[in-house]
Amino acid sequence: MLAFLVFVMACVWPRPSQAENPVVQTSYTADPAPLVHKGVVYLYTGHDEDDARDFKMRNWRLYTSTDMSNWTDKGVVASLATFPWAMQDNDAWASQVVERNGKFYLYASVSVQGWPKSVIAVAVADRPEGPFKDALGKPLIDKGIGYFDPTVFVDDDGQAYMYWGNPQLYYVKLNPDMISYSGEIQQAEGRPRNYQEGPWVYKRQGKYYMAYASSCCPEGIGYAMSDKPTGPWVYKGDIMDHNANSTGNHPGIVDYMGGSYVFGFNYRLNFADTPIHRERRSVTVTRFDYNADGTINMLPWWDNVGVAPLKPLSPYERVEAETMAWTSRLKRDRDRPFDWAPGIKTARNDKVGMVVTRITDLSYIKVNGVDFGSKGAARFVANLASEMDGGKIELRLDSVDGPHLGTLTVARTGGLDQWQQQGVPVSGATGVHDLYLIFRGQGGPTMFEFDHWRFERK
Ligand code: FUB
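Above: the input record for the complex with beta-L-arabinofuranose. Below: its predicted structure, written as tokens.
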């Protein structure tokens, strides 16, 4: 009897949401560097290539969010080609972008010929989305052993500092131009005993914090505090313990909409794809709190849940197709999804900017916390490009087999560079729900390309 009840409950009970950590599923991402600017979280990441075995990194990507749950892919914002004097085949390692006086400075780890090979470059842009242009035509910090993983912090008095290094911790005072420095490169006083790499410096309530990837391998996340930006740094504990599921764990921390968030990375997507450890990492995020004395308790290892939307998303305004909380592929029609399976990708289109591509049967996009309002939606409209007829976008609420709103059957538009708005009537969409856009049909490598969507009100 009990078994029968459990079976019935499992059939009728709403299924829990599909997981949303890591933050990005369309590329492998690493070395998170979040920046909050004018109400938007700009998440700059390193990029592990899909065919990477060891580190294979050639560019830096950007994702943005206004709810910490749905992320919009803004594409590549800088690459090794931004620094033509650097090695061009690999080593686009950790970076950070900071804003000063309306300009955005990207500090990036790259390498040059010879030994030691690590240097730190700087590029500048007028907008957080770039394009970032090489500021100097040469390294900002010339080569040194372990000279990578820059973090830049601007103090309240306007003095900027850059810290970096593995396993030593160095810093310099940056000049107000943010592309040169004064004085000698210094070794930080009080380098925490388990410091490895990936420093992240910020100030909170008059205290200076340095989070960092703690001794390898696997790395955890440690942190130290100081009364001054130049140290001495006092080790305060671990924000996250070492975990055998990972090798690295490079942190980035921001406050957003009243909460504090730490980003790092795991290998969940890699291990969903292959049992072999490849350097194909995925940026993760979790919320945390400070204790009254400013210390931080140790968090559990990255969960698969991530962050619930901090505010609802309006479906009645244009939503980029590359905005999503999760994407994966169904195993078979009506089956539960894989933990994760490679599916759609994002790419830049000459006419419309970033789009979703490689759309094949049973891949899907999930958008969290969509507020259809009390009257609800009457119609779904998408901007699409297609060489063929018959690809479908099936719209469902809350799970891959949740309430069905309608299905848009895509008509050919005349080519993958010919964009057209196509729509379908929908019903049953009221209130706040997670929205699933499930792609069905035959044809590849992409059935169609998908630029943006919106609903029309009743
Ligand atoms: O991603 C390449 C390197 O691995 C970074 O620069 C380090 O912090 C580690 O995450």
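Notes for the reader.
The two ends are 45 Å apart (CA to CA).
The chain has two helices and 31 strands.
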